[in-house]
Each structure stands twice: as C-alpha cells, then as structure tokens.
Design goal:
3-stranded antiparallel beta sheet; Rubrerythrin, domain 2
Amino acid sequence: MERFYVCNVCGHVEFGQAPQNCPVCFAPKEKFSEDTAALMPAEKEGKEKHVPQIVVTDDCGLIPDLCRDIHIKIGSTLHPMAEDHWITWIDIYVNRVFASRYMLRPLMQPAVSIHVKKENTGTLTVIEHCNKHGRWMAEAKI
C-alpha cells in the first residue's frame, strides 16, 4: 500500500515520505502526518465531479518545440464552483515530484492549463481538493 504524508498546515500531499519542508507552505517535516486515506478512491460515489480529467498534447501553442500543453479540468461532469462548494486547489506532480499548486476561488472555473518541458517524461499526477469532499487524484503519461 502506498504511503501518503499530508501537511497539516496547507493540505499538500507527499508520496512515500515527508519532506524536510513543505514545498507549498514551507512548514517543517514535523507538520506532516501519515494518512493512508489522504485521497478518495477513484470508484467512490461522486467521482464524475471530482476525478481530474487530464489531456496531454505534444504541441504547445505558446512555446513551440520546447514544451507540451497539459489541460486539466475537474470532473467528467464539471465540478460546481459556488460560494459554499468549490475546488480550492489543484496540485501538479511530475514523476511524483511536486511541481506547482494552482489556487482557485468560486469565481473561477475548475480547470488549469500548464506547459511542461518536453524533456520531462513519465507520469503526471494531479491532486485536487474539494472543500466538501476532500482530495481526488488522477494520473497520465507524459
């Protein structure tokens, strides 16, 4: 069973072991707790509005030849973004190494597009956090 460590300050998830400092909020290692239930199972009820949908394109319109575009939306049925129920953040990992966090507010759509250098290959992992239903994860090959 995979081990997850969650930052008790910002909710960031690390795989395998806690880092010296949180890459999001810089909290020390002592602020992380092991949590085997950190992520909702993909088959759980509500998955159609929570599991990230990932589209990888090998061509980038912004920086041709140097990167690939990755489009992420939350849910096969788009997740609502209301004052009382929204996606608070989307975290991106490349080969289980944290790359970036995108903060969202109800006035935004639950989606993000990123540009990843073409030399980065392997697995792209996306974890999203719903303020009512917790964290959900999806992965795609890049």
